[in-house]
Write a structure and sequence with these properties.
Elements lengths: L2 H11 L4 H8 L3 H8 L7 H11 L3 H5 L22 H9 L3 E2 L2 E2 L2 H24 L1
Antiparallel strand pairs: 1-2
Helix pairs in contact: 2-3, 6-7
């Protein structure tokens, strides 16, 4: 599994669109598409942005089977620079309900990713002002 497969796997495991991953990497969704198809490879700056966002090493993206060699599971709740640590603690430690039912670990993971995306989008919108 090379760069193209690692990028696609990472994006899919976090439930991101190519556009959302492009925003994280600072490129267009078309660029992400060419990476995933193996037509082009991302520049190191984009790889670093992706790695920083997900709290992984660049080698996890670059190397064959790089995502499989991670010590921590890829979809564990890890705070990023964009999400407060208190939010992570609440989602991990508290019993949270949504629409009258307890949130599963998978639900909490999805909620964390949604909030991360919202933080990222708000930050990007503020940069444009």
């Amino acid at each position: 599994m090379g760069i193209s497969e690692n990028i696609k796997l990472l994006r899919e495991q976090y439930g991101l669109s190519q556009k959302e991953l492009g925003q994280i990497a600072g490129v267009s969704d078309k660029a992400v598409s060419t990476w995933e198809q193996g037509i082009k490879e991302p520049r190191m700056g984009a790889i670093q942005k992706i790695a920083d966002h997900f709290g992984i090493q660049k080698s996890n993206i670059i190397e064959d089977n790089g995502l499989q060699s991670q010590s921590a599971p890829i979809n564990s709740l890890q705070p990023t620079k964009k999400v407060p640590k208190d939010l992570k603690k609440i989602l991990e430690d508290e019993e949270v309900t949504l629409n009258g039912r307890m949130m599963s670990a998978e639900d909490k993971e999805k909620m964390m990713r949604i909030i991360e995306a919202a933080f990222y989008e708000a930050k990007e919108m503020n940069k444009r002002k």
